[in-house]
Amino acid sequence: xxxxxxxxxxxxxxxxxxxxxxxxxxxxxxxxxxxxxxxxxxxxxxxxxxxxxxxxxxxxxxxxxxxxxxxxxxxxxxxxxxxxxxxxxxxxxxxxxxxxxxxxxxxxxxxxxxxx
Length: 116
Known about the structure:
Blueprint: E1 2-13, H1 19-24, E2 26-36, H2 39-44, H3 53-64, H4 71-85, E3 91-98, E4 110-115
Antiparallel strand pairs: 1-2, 2-3, 3-4
């Protein structure tokens, strides 16, 4: 099994429990790793034989555009959308980081990660 990785995809979205987060929004960074069989693409050099990462980015953009209270919920919705849109994906990893959380502490981000 091989992997396709999308690292550091930055999207602006409106996720959070605090009402101001849903109104003002925040910058999020996504890391997505998809496990799939890439052997056909490795020999054919044809995008039809792989998972088109541009299409995965568009799926992520669509899922992120729908507000949720929790990053856990966003991650699960993104996993489900990927599995539905790309049946060749056999498993993966998603990390969603909120880059400017409304917490009175000095930190670079808060994140949720799921594997399946």
